[in-house]
Amino acid sequence: MNALWIIDNSMDVETNNFVTVLDELHIEYKVTPYRAFIGADVESIATQNRPVICYGSVNFIKQIQRYCPKFNPGTYANFLRYMYHSYNRHFTEYLLNSPDNAITVEDLLKQETRDAVSNKLGKLVFIRPDRSDKPFSGQVIDLADVPSLLDKAESFGNLTKSDLVYLSAPQHISREARVLIVDDVVVTGSFYGNNGKVDANTDLEYLEYFMRFAKDVLKRTQYRPDKAFTLDICQTYSGEFKLVELSAFSCAGMYSMDYTKIVKAVSNLAVRDYVTS
């Protein structure tokens, strides 16, 4: 039994890389269009009596979850389990950013709240959303610019006044890497950042240090949001390795990972999940 892959065609590099490897491995797939505000063309793929794996943008995956609920396993993207509050307490000793300073959007829009934050953390803070669908990207920002950021996220990212955001003091980090976990095994990884700039180089020897850290985190923790997910890991200027966040496999960028390893590992997992469900 083989799995069918359904891939969002808007993922550019990832789409092309997956298609290349799927062709090489003779694994069936469908590339499905997705356009913002229109949605995926899911009706033609909604019925499948076989293992199905979907990969694409957050909106594409949400569309699949809504209209193709019988796909098995379908997606590895249990969005509720990737909300920062869902997992941060399970990884406290490894996290780069403190999970302690959670504030609602409504409160943070108040000047007195921002003044209190400034007295505690300084005028420059790192801010990230609690929500896993990222109504805005985590970033270092001047507190004076926070209202503008939140207003835009409300308008375009569906952020609500009751949503939580997390604030912490900015950290100085150098390298950033993403590591893929499938069925509790570290499968592959890729750098994606270097001193704040996009950098997906393939220094596999240096990447091995990040992979070892991922293995250590898995060995010492029990929380798993899905059977396939990613860990974002960074190295600070002092040389420490820290956990940045967890992301859902089905909509996480794979950068320069080994796509052959990805496809084999996730395909095998999907077949096992289908057979045992």
Walk me through the structure.
By secondary structure, the protein is an alpha+beta fold. The chain has three domains: 4-77; 80-86 and 172-256, D-amino Acid Aminotransferase, Chain A, domain 1 (2-Layer Sandwich), CATH 3.30.470; 98-168, Dna Ligase, domain 1. Helix content is 31%, strand content 28%. The chain has eight helices and 15 strands. The chain has helices spanning 13-24, 58-67, 84-87, 105-108, 111-121, 146-156, 204-220, 259-276, and strands at residues 4-8, 29-32, 34-35, 39-40, 51-55, 72-74, 102-104, 124-129, 139-142, 164-168, 173-182, 185-194, 197-198, 228-236, 241-248. The strands form four sheets. Strands 13-12-11-14-15 form a five-stranded antiparallel beta sheet. A hairpin with a 2-residue loop joins strand 11 and strand 12. It is globular and about 60 Å long. The two termini are 15 Å apart.
